[in-house]
Amino acid sequence: MQRRSLLAVLLCATFASPSLLAQEVIKLSTTTSTENSGLLKHLLPVFEAKTNTRVHVISVGTGKALELAKNGDVDVTLVHAREMEDKFVEEGWGVDRRDVMYNDFIVVGPESDPARIKGSKDVVDAFKRIAGANVKFISRGDNSGTDVMEKGYWQRAAVKPQGANYVSAGLGMGEVLNMAAEMRAYTLTDRATYGAYKAKTGLAIVVEGDKRMYNPYGIIAVNPAKHAGVNYKGAKQLIEWITSPEGQARIASFKPAGEQLFFAPLR
């Protein structure tokens, strides 16, 4: 019996291996927001089944995601920092950039709102008021797209919280939201990740609706002329699918708790 069972296992492995070997791997670097929000788990299995591929995801801040792409460690990158993306393409590291989707940034904080900014639609004024109050602000501090936007708001405000009131975490968005909840602090977040962590953190949205908080995402293939070993074919497959009507409909259908978190790019 044991010999028959072993033989059956070996035969299954033999017949399964050709399809496994044929399955192409596409390496994707992306921001923590696409991973933490649950969007990629909603999207990628559909693409993988359709194309007989496997997407290996590396979820980091936008700066690190672009660095991995620049080094040829991934085939394609999905990020949200347009100036950094444009520079990446202009320097020849990336090709075939496409707009994928957008959502927005929001400022969240404790329900008690000690800085008295709830309901504001002026993010720069809100940052000034946070800096002027004796409250904590948690920064991503990781050169992510969110971190870049936050630093820009402080620059426009021409002020920043001092000393222990400003915490540079060097962490992903989900971890920063947890820190803000524990420390009763404010932070800047994308709406999608906040939606995934809202229940466990109890943080409230205090600032939203400012046009300066628009948050677009782009996808870029690594330039095969820079790194001959990258899977450019696979990168193009993912780019074409995620920007196709099917891919866009799948993004629009991502509605945890009934709320749509990502939208088709503005044209």
Protein described:
With 267 residues, the protein is an alpha/beta fold. The chain folds into 2 domains: 25-102 and 216-258, Periplasmic binding protein-like II (D-Maltodextrin-Binding Protein, domain 2); 104-213, D-Maltodextrin-Binding Protein, domain 2. Helices cover 45% and strands 22% of the residues. The protein has 11 helices and 9 strands. It has helices at residues 2-22, 32-36, 39-51, 62-70, 82-90, 123-132, 145-157, 173-183, 191-201, 232-242, 245-252, and strands at residues 24-30, 53-59, 76-79, 94-109, 137-139, 166-168, 186-190, 204-207, 214-222. Strand 5 (137-139), helix 7 (145-157) and strand 6 form a beta-alpha-beta unit. Helix 6 (123-132) packs across helix 7 (145-157). The radius of gyration is 21 Å and the shape is globular. The N and C termini lie far apart (65 Å). The model is unreliable at 1-20 (pLDDT under 50).
Q: Estimate the strand proportion.
A: 15-25%
Q: What is the alpha-carbon Rg in Å?
A: 21 Å
- Total strands: 9
What is the helical fraction, as a range of percent? Answer: 40-55%
Mean pLDDT reading: 91
Which word captures the global form?
Answer: globular
Major sheet, described briefly?
9 strands, mixed
Low-pLDDT regions: 1-20
Distance between the termini: 65 Å
Classification by helices and strands: alpha/beta
Reported CATH architecture of the largest domain: 3-Layer(aba) Sandwich
Q: Number of helical segments?
A: 11
Organism: Massilia timonae CCUG 45783
Keywords: Signal
Domain PBP: 28-246
Pfam families: PBP_like_2 (PF12849)
